[in-house]
Input
Amino acid sequence: MDNINISFTKAQYKTLLKLIYLGEWMHESHQDAESKDVTEVVQLIFSKAKEAGTESMIEYAEDLNKYFPTKNMEEIIHLLVEDYDEYTFWEELSDSLAERDFFEKYGEELIEQMSMEKRFSLLQKIVEQYEKEFEISGISNLVLKKPK
Output
């Protein structure tokens, strides 16, 4: 096995811990079982926490023979995830509704004839309308139409 050695400052290592935890959370959050290769890398990085003086971020559970983020670290990451979720919710909602409206308004045949620039410009105008609406009203003006 070829080993790679990388040196980090303590500040860089703290940043790496956050990135590793976020990456693991993102990768594993929708999986039924842990991914062995991801867990292996996470445990390797987490195992250096004491050496780096970051025990406030990572702790070792002897009974499980495994490293875990501390409650403090989980709270920090939870805030980052909440911000990310909030941002992506509105972005995805605006994009999805705009794309639906775009196809309803212009139709697939006409859209295929448009240049990429024209397509992007027209779609972006609709996205911006939704973004403005959601910024002002949130979801309060959203309603589902009953099927006819």
